[in-house]
Amino acid sequence: MPLSDFQPVIGLEVHAQLLTNTKIFCGCSTEFGAAPNQNTCPVCLGLPGVLPVLNARVVEYAIRTGLALGCTINKTSVWSRKNYFYPDLPKGYQITQFDQPICEHGQLSVDMAEGEKVIRVRRIHMEEDAGKSVHDASASESLVDLNRAGVPLLEIVGDPDLRSADEAVDYLKALRDVLVYLGVNDGNMEEGSFRCDANVSVMRKGATAYGQRVELKNINSFRFVKQAIEYEIARQVDVIESGGKVDQETRLYDPNKGVTRSMRSKEEAHDYRYFPEPDLPPLHVTNERIDEVAKSLPELPRAKVTRFMSQYGLPAYDAKILCAERPLADYFEAVAQHFKDYKRLSNWFLGELLRLLKDEGGTVTTLRFSTVQFANLLGAVEKGTISANAGKDVFGEMFRTGKDPEAIIAEKGLAQVSDVGAIEAVVDEVLAKNAAEVEKYKAGKKQSYGFFVGQVMKAMKGKGNPALVNELLKKKLGE
Amino acid sequence: MQLTDLTLLELAAKLASGEVTSVEATQACLARISQVDGKVKAFLRLDEHGALAAAEASDARRKSGNPHGPLDGVPVAVKDIFLTEGVETTCASHILKGFVPPYDATTVRLLKEAGMPILGKLNQDEFAMGSSNESSAYGPCHNPWDVTRTPGGSSGGSAAALAAREVFGTLGTDTGGSIRQPAALTNTVGLKPTYGRVSRYGVISYASSLDAPGPMARTVGDVAALLKVLARHDPLDSTSAPADVPDYLADLEQGVAGLKLGVPREYFVEGMDPEVEAAVRSALKEYERLGATLVDVSLPHTKYALATYYLLAPAEASSNLARYDGVRYGHRTREAKGLKDMYGMTRDEGFGPEVKRRIMLGTYALSAGYYDAYYLKAQKVRTLIREDFTKAFTQVDALVTPTSPVPAFKLGEKVNDPLSMYLMDVCTLPCNLAGLPGLSLPCGFTKAGLPIGLQLMGRPFDEAKLLRIGRAFEREHEFTRRLAPI
């Protein structure tokens, strides 16, 4: 029986590392790439006698994320200990939020193949990251690097509202966009600062009860998310079709082989022995604090796309690309202050600007020229001072040198000739030289019109104002 | 009279007048330690060099007229549960053998900032689990009043060092009575401050929600003076209270006239030693004579305190002690083949039987399926116990009870009977469950010459009143001036 007889049900748990300068319970740096164990102190090393002190910025970021995802912010939330043994877990427990998290009951609207879909967010909680074990530095020993221990994380737990691997990826991307927009996470899956676990089950179409779910752990790219979920759906369908039963277990995705394999079964599942963290009092947040954070909330990607469409009259395609990253959208709006033909501006963004950034590197925040210079260039093209093609050359030069467009146009002699007399002289000359072609044209061979334009432009080294050239040519040809 | 027979405040006065130097006082302590500690075993290790260097620095400050405070130069010692930078700290456990902390506990730092030389690390029950100091991995401590008997626990070394006059003041910790019970058994004074009054930062955790570091000394005034140094809000401890710190010595001599003292009937339990009961009853009469009113009160949930405590404290301990896994510091087994083996064998070799017992109890109480029945239920009872106290304190200024139901017992007597050992804390641990301050001070002796302790419990952050009430009794009697025969 085919896959299509089954309905997959998927829920994602996302771990997002917060962009704070210091760790969640001590003042150590969170900088990535420091020498092993450099960013540590007695607190994050879990030495005897140490106590956690909460980083207020972590709470702010959690509230910000919660508000952006439409969650209720709990006035009181509670810290818990999750107890388990692992060499890179210095205290023998992780401080996290268990039965009373800071945010609950939110949702995220996502554009999917079949249109907009609302995915519910069950809860968001704060926790500390563990360190990392290094297994390949020595033949006989494993080493432990605790730089990451105590780095703040948000865990965003979605409801099982996703129905395919593609939907899962769409949701994940949309969620990442929101977090990056909020400035709370860098969205980097490769470095593990944005990572997810997937709960996957299948049920026969029309069934009302969910199937047995399997947890897929720590998947670190969008591609692997899709592959792992698709593999797991097919595997579960196979198991059921061959008369078997899906076991409750935790599985790992092996990207090299493209398969998931069992990590631990329900029987081996940890008993984390959660209990309220006695070293940290319950966390209370006031309405004032929540309001304050709400005021600082930036416009989110979806709202921005809608606004770009209505305010600038842009098609959805353009608006989505421009709003994909906040700095690009901000930059568009900055240039739009000085240049009002928004569609033309968008064309330059989607064409020239993004191409140059891609080919030659850099970001909109490191551009050498100003928004005014950018607008002036487009103004020159609009007014016909230079041709569109010449404009692209000038833009390339501005991109590399930061020089004024006017200066580049003058230097390169790119200014268009709009002197009617001068153009008329050239037109006459060209028509005279090609008298035979003119006869044929007048007799009906209209396709040679382009030939005349080309000859005039050639004679004028491309600087003839195209509108005037056309106007004069047509006049002389008796049109 | 020897220099070491002085009380802490008496020595402070002599240091201030220049009659004695800190180096002399420190040397006198070291001499006394070498004379008697072979019998008492109060010290796990000395820091002779560090203490003398601190004493010299103190004398230099005195000479230049800039002492750090009234206690500058007074030698003290701390329970081995307090982290001391550069000085091995083991919590009396094999698992931390060789651990040299890179930082000081906040309380240790405060002592140092007050100019007080720290003589060394004091014996205790392993990880503060025990009521007789016999669970120390480095051998038991002995009671200076009778060296065949226990000084109590877990701060047994802190109490015994005072009773043996090896030092002028000590730090202990009190999770279920570990300051007050040994104080009672050694004729010394111990204060368990309100939870949050004294920082826990750098104090090795046993049960975080109950642990209270506090001062121990030979008189109520000495304890008040030490509390003045220690009581402070600590931003490194999220449970530390940002409350105002009064001058604990200011009202010490105000007496008890007009105060209402509650006598909770549940604390005069069956099985209490009759001599203890008699001494406590006579202390109550004394308070009446001094102008206090005695009020009969009831704390009906007291009978559940012991069971509640022995669910909550081991539960927290099982988690707090997970970090001793052999991965980063302390003991690691030499035998293990794989990771699981390494954890198991390291912990099996490193922890003593009482610690293992409590880890097992706590792990069980927290495990899935039992959490609601044990841990959660215990938390609910804890709330009821707290409410009992809150209610009682609407009627009275303080509660007066025995500290320990029996005087010092023989070493070895209860070692194989954990339940009877746990009963040693029956009068003290409700105070920890409620987070209240509790003071133990001497109130008499048995016919055999063993000390008896009186416990005072107060409202949160009302230490000053407890000290004042304690002092009123102390002033009338010579108990705290009686010296142990060692």
Secondary-structure blueprint of this entry?
The complex is a heterodimer of chains A (479) and B (486).
Chain A: E1 6-17, H1 42-45, H2 56-68, E2 72-73, E3 76-77, E4 79-83, E5 93-97, E6 103-112, E7 115-128, E8 132-134, E9 143-145, E10 152-158, H3 165-182, E11 194-204, E12 214-219, H4 222-241, E13 249-254, E14 259-265, E15 275-276, E16 283-284, H5 287-295, H6 301-312, H7 316-323, H8 326-336, H9 342-360, H10 371-383, H11 388-401, H12 405-412, H13 420-433, H14 435-442, H15 449-459, H16 466-476
Parallel strand pairs in A: 12-13
Antiparallel strand pairs in A: 1-10, 1-11, 2-6, 3-16, 4-5, 4-15, 6-7, 7-10, 8-9, 11-12, 13-14
Chain B: H1 8-17, H2 22-40, E1 43-46, H3 48-63, E2 76-79, H4 106-113, E3 118-122, H5 156-163, E4 169-174, H6 180-186, E5 189-192, E6 212-217, H7 220-230, E7 260-264, H8 274-289, E8 293-297, H9 305-320, H10 339-350, H11 353-366, H12 372-392, E9 398-402, H13 418-422, H14 429-434, E10 438-445, E11 451-458, H15 463-476
Parallel strand pairs in B: 2-3, 2-4, 7-8, 7-9
Antiparallel strand pairs in B: 1-3, 4-6, 5-6, 5-10, 9-11, 10-11
Helix pairs in contact in B: 2-3, 5-6, 7-15, 9-11, 9-12
Q: Can you describe what's shown?
A:
The complex is a heterodimer of chains A (479) and B (486). Chain A contains 16 helices and 16 strands. Chain A starts with 5 loop residues before the first strand and ends with a helix. In chain A, helix 3 (165-182) packs antiparallel against helix 4 (222-241), helix 8 crosses helix 10 and helix 13 (420-433) crosses helix 15. The relative contact order of chain A is 0.09. Helices cover 40% and strands 20% of the residues of chain A. With 486 residues, chain B is an alpha/beta fold. Helices cover 38% and strands 12% of the residues of chain B. Chain B has 15 helices and 11 strands. In chain B, helix 2 packs antiparallel against helix 3 (48-63), helix 5 (156-163) packs parallel to helix 6 and helix 9 (305-320) crosses helix 12 (372-392). The chains are: A alpha+beta (479), B alpha/beta (486). The A-B interface holds A 42, 45-54, 81, 83, 85, 87, 90-93, 144, 271, 273-275, 278-281 and B 83, 89, 91, 96, 99, 101-103, 105, 200-205, 207-209, 235-239, 315-316, 318-319, 321-323, 325, 327-329, 339, 343, 363, 366-368, 371, 375.
